[in-house]
Amino acid sequence: MAGLRTVGAIALTLAVLAVLSANVTHMVAGAMAAMVGTFAIKDKQRRGQALTLLLGLPVALAAMTLGALLNKTVVVGDLFFIALIFAAVYSRRFGDRGTALGLIGFQVYFVSLFVRATFSALPGLCVTLAVAFACSALVRFVVVPETPERVLHRLRKAFRARLAQLVSAQIDLLDAGPDRAEKALEDLRRHTARLHESAMMIQGQLAEGTSDSATASLVQRRVADAEIAAERLGVLLLTARSARRADTLTLHLPHAPVPEPGNRLRAQDSVTATLRRDLDALRLLVQRPITDDRGTALAHLRNRLLGYREEENLPQASAAVQDVFRGIGETARSVMGLRLALDGPQDESDDTPSTTRSREELDAENLSIAGSEEAEREESERGDGGPRGWERPTTRTAVQVAVGSALAIVGGEFLSSQRWYWAVLTCWVVFLNTASTGEILVKGYRRLIGTVLGVVAGALLAGLVGTHTWTAFGLVLLFIFAMFFTAPLSYALMSFFVTAMLGLLYTLLDTYSTAVLVLRIEETALGAVCGVIAAALILPVHTDRRTDELLATVLRRLGDVTGAAVDQLSGGPSLDLLDRARDLDKALDDLRSSVQPLTHPITPLRSRRQTARYLVALLETCAYHARSLAATAELLPHSKSVAADPRLRRAGRRIAHNIEVLVARVEDDDTEGVAETGASLAALLEPEGPDGPRHDRVTTRVIRHLQRLDEGVVGLARPLGVPVSTGEAVSAPGSAPPRQTTPSRGPTA
């Protein structure tokens, strides 16, 4: 959608300028201004977008005017450019509007350098900017309107599509033979991760895209249910295919081997055929709304799948295979809850008793969510407590970019007194959305690769286009759309389209030559090097330090979610657990981005790369189990299927203790804390005596999640160099220390 809006704004700008008989230079400037005036706006609400765009025009006019006036004064112009860069980066601390205005100021000043603006051409260029911003506003608010509600609606459709794709991947895994099992498992991992990404995107849009907080909470709850149920179904299916219970880590660790195959499915062809049929039915429920023309048939499928939740019609098979059918029933229930939350009430005339009970459970949960929203107390405002001065990220980055740009200007002048600004642009870009020296190094490397390939493509296209102006503009529009479309997927690919587009713009300005494009490569390499030097020497944030900070944050939030969920499942007060779980997911996403320099193929330390991947995969597994605990705890206190069990509190103590020990080790390498392991949590929670209360099915699942979480947290101890004891419980203060095993400290992430 961003690509469509940008291409539409540029096309409309070019059409208006053509009617006004503008020359090619003004058309190029208008196209670039329309592009920046469209993609720079990040406000969520339309009113905020309009205000930012309105303020952006005078900023753009001022930047173009100063660029034209300072074009001939080298020293003053360079000093102003450095000051502008510092201000543009520093303005990010003022939110989306500050970021947008800073970006508009920098990019339009860059446009003035690109088209070599002069004082005599300034009136025409100012009119061009006004046309570009007006066309950008028209496309944004009329032609391709964008509202938070529309965005959320598309994200909800995307989530359903991702969920259907995940079920398809599970069907492929069921059918995969030994020769295709590795590929099927890799597809399952990819679609599981994409479903999680869709859920996170919905989470980020709920506040602006829903009418009230109760609706937002309801959609959040149902999306979380569907995500967790679908991922759990994948684990159950892996277990049914395997000789032993599959580890959830298998779904998160790249290139993990396929679990050793078993014969529980292959020995029962009729059961396997039934399982495949029901997975197909589940996929159909996800893809098609209940109210379409095939509603009766879909209701029959839904009723059959929901019956598995209550042990109805379970086939004669092993316990692991029966668990898959139960997992299908739970996923069907989550799909029905998602439909009710997104599409409203459905026809209940064809409901069976099991479906009716599922609806009653969902209705009770909906009332619980609404009640918790009404009774929610306002949290007291917290103090700023954040970093100040040079430690503030925006200040530090602004200083680093300013210093790197100064180096790039000096070096770029030696390469070319006319096009030195390419080095500055690269230095600016490699700092965007990066937080450590390693991230900047990887981003600079990717930009250089994309630029080299883009230069080759630009040279070929420039020769083919020749003097055909509108053909060149058409290809420019195509490349701009491709640039936006590929930006979330590959930075190198995006850089390729940017460079190829610039080759066409040079052709339009009659300044194309092979030497110019080779100079573009040299300037790009220089800008990337200057950025890395500035990041490494000026207020540096080393990758290890950044990663350790994020790792500690992830562990703390994991402890918060787990502790709160266990407390609520044990009978404690109700808390907003799903928001805490999403905070954990966001922290994990930040960590995943931060370790990219450590997991990149060019990283020379192979063992360190493997350790970083293992740690992230293990944390993703822990986060999945924590989300599952939070989703189950959210059912209390109004659910008919979940009841508080005070015994669960005992299970959470060891996990909480171990997480605290891990956090202490990450923050202080000299700490002497010991992680605890020993008897399984299920054994610790066995009923006391033959007359003690037995676990119901939901409590058994909770214990299983706690057990996996406990194993995952202990698994983090070895690569982090934390000693592990073999005691059965956490030692009480003053007691004798438990027996310890002290692993060697492995490379940290």
Structure, described:
With 749 residues, this protein is an all-alpha fold. Helix content is 70%, strand content 1%. The protein has helices at residues 2-19, 24-39, 46-69, 74-90, 95-114, 122-143, 148-175, 181-209, 213-241, 269-287, 295-307, 319-343, 353-375, 393-415, 421-431, 437-465, 469-486, 491-508, 514-537, 543-569, 577-594, 596-599, 606-633, 648-667, 681-684, 697-717, and strands spanning 675-676, 724-725, 740-741. It has a three-stranded mixed β-sheet. Helix 2 (24-39) packs antiparallel against helix 5 and helix 3 runs antiparallel to helix 6 (122-143). The longest helix has 29 residues, at 181-209. 47% of the residues are buried. Residues 375-385, 689-695 and 728-749 have low confidence and may be disordered.
Portion in beta strands: under 5%
Q: Give the spatial strand order of the biggest sheet.
A: 1-2-3
- Counting DSSP E segments of at least 2 residues, the number of strands comes to 3
Q: Determine Rg (CA atoms, Å).
A: 29 Å
Low-pLDDT windows of residues: 375-385, 689-695, 728-749
Count of helical regions: 26
Instruction: Indicate the overall shape.
Output: globular
